[in-house]
Amino acid sequence: AHRLFGSSISNNYIEGFGEGGQAGTWCGIWASLQGGPASTIAHNRIFNFGGEGQTDSEYRYICLTVNYSRAVAVVTGNAIMGAGTPRGTGLHYTAEEGRALTVVSSGNAVYEVHSPAVVGPNVTVTSGQ
């Protein structure tokens, strides 16, 4: 999802991403956010039952980054189940130098991944009010 601006990604069932023979960074949901109104990633089910087979790959179940300025996202109520390998990350939040990301993250079930969350520089994660 490129250039989210006050948008929503919700109620999706996603499985089997990155199962092909090509190595890379694979995301169940990848979104780049615009600065301005918050976007919401909610109530998605993201699984990788077929495994995380490519040893040269990374598997990120929800991956957010920022296009410009300061972006805000709400990530809530998502169910993520990895394949139990050292290559899986449940929630991956990044913002390049000169950009900022605030994520309100709560109520997510993240299991069978190596890293439940990776939070990069210029990113603030809170549980909300």
Q: Quick recap of the structure?
A:
The protein has 129 residues and is mainly β.
Main sheet: which strands, in order across?
A: 1-4-7-10-13
Strand content: over 45%
Oligomer: single chain
Alpha-beta classification: mainly beta
Uncertain parts = none
- Helicity level: under 10%
Distance between the termini: 27 Å
**Global shape:** globular
- Rg from alpha-carbon coordinates: 14 Å
Mean pLDDT: 94
Main sheet overview:
5 strands, parallel
**Total count of strands:** 13
Account of the 3D structure:
There is one protein chain. The chain is mainly β and 129 residues long. Helices cover 0% and strands 51% of the residues. It has no helices and 13 strands. The strands form 3 sheets. Strands 1-4-7-10-13 form a 5-stranded parallel β-sheet, with no helix packed on it. The protein is globular. The protein starts with 7 loop residues before the first strand and ends with a strand.
What order do the helices and strands come in, and which of them pair?
Elements: E1 8-10, E2 13-15, E3 25-33, E4 39-42, E5 45-47, E6 58-66, E7 70-76, E8 79-81, E9 88-93, E10 100-106, E11 109-111, E12 115-119, E13 123-126
Parallel strand pairs: 1-4, 2-5, 3-6, 4-7, 5-8, 6-9, 7-10, 8-11, 9-12, 10-13
Features of this protein?
about 130 residues, five-stranded parallel sheet, mainly beta
